[in-house]
Amino acid sequence: MGDFYQNGVITTLHNLSRDSVSIESMEKELTEFAKVRPLSLVLPSLYSELQGPALKNIVEHLCEVPYLNQIVIGLDRATEDEYRHALEFFSKLPQKIKVLWNDGPRLQALDAELQEQGLAPKELGKGRNVWYCLGFVLGSGQAESVALHDCDILTYDRHMLARLLYPVANPNFNYEFCKGYYARVADGKINGRVSRLLVTPLLRALKKIFGNLDYLEYLDSYRYPLAGEFSFRTDVINDIRIPSDWGLEIGVLSEMDRNYSNNRLCQVDIADTYDHKHQSLSVDNENGGLSKMSIDISKAIFRKLATNGVVFNTETFRSIKATYYRIALDFVETYRNDATINGLKFDIHSEEQAVELFAHNILKAGLHFLDNPMETPFIPSWNRVTSAVPDIFPRMMDAVEKDMEEFSSK
């Protein structure tokens, strides 16, 4: 049974009635909502995920979802034959399906044109995939509310999607944005190291150094700030500027804080258990795994604080690292005790290894921030893109339609 406690500055929607609200009753409501406010889903996917168990299960569950008007799949790292396979793979879905072949010549040509004008994502990755998918949703005009979730969720069921969309689909609610959260417990242990051992202790360290700034209080209100599951009204897409690296989730939360008042934002409990593929710690490779993730996330937080007027220097970042390190070690003990009382496995050595790496990378991220003051990691908003290239949406629609028509086996 979930608690009903409201802490922080955004609304938390708990799961207080796990046995009394059936998926059928919730989907019936969503089907009625969709008549007034059409609903869409975005799935950013690597081709490799089509070969794993998670996405197959996700598609099976989505086949039973009655309220979605459209599903937009962004396909990365796919050859022509793999794109053909993807079209066949997703063809069983009964909703309107659009598969963006991001590596195909048509979408690559549009990307090159935007690159020339400084309007396209500067690096490959999930952020770029999401950005193009959201642009497609906006341009297609087929949805008023849209959800997004990852394609590697091993514990997926359709109740997760229903709860994620409900807050922005219900016309009696005023939420523009909803973030999913859940307990990262699977296989008898606590997961979610980057959120537990980097983000939360880093935010507490920053509060200790800079005081209770509104942005820090806001970010610390989210129970799982790095969750890849969120939903929003489609008008949010126009102005949002997101990072193209691992700072995507923090960047989205920062944009919501900039563009909307807190009473238009919420988070919702979407799952009792949640598991997906796990990144390696990558101690010796700052360009991969949790090492790169920790650097990108730290930079995203520092950039946002700087836009709020916080001044950093080398000594500041050394203080942040030291303060973080002590707080994070205290959290290791806290999580060990939490794991013990719940009968879960807990490896203190690997937890403290992660803390040591994250402390090192916080300082590295800070120094990179100081050394690159002109760095602009954010992808331009779609408002800016359509201002510079007014026909970008119909051309994108046309490219996707031609790809699907040309390479579909049907």
UniProtKB/TrEMBL annotation:
InterPro entries: Nucleotide-diphossugar_trans (IPR029044). Gene3D superfamilies: Spore Coat Polysaccharide Biosynthesis Protein SpsA, Chain A (3.90.550.10). The keyword Transferase applies. GO terms for molecular function: transferase activity. Keywords: Transferase. It comes from the Bacteria. The keyword Transferase applies. This is Glycosyl transferase. It comes from Catenovulum sediminis.
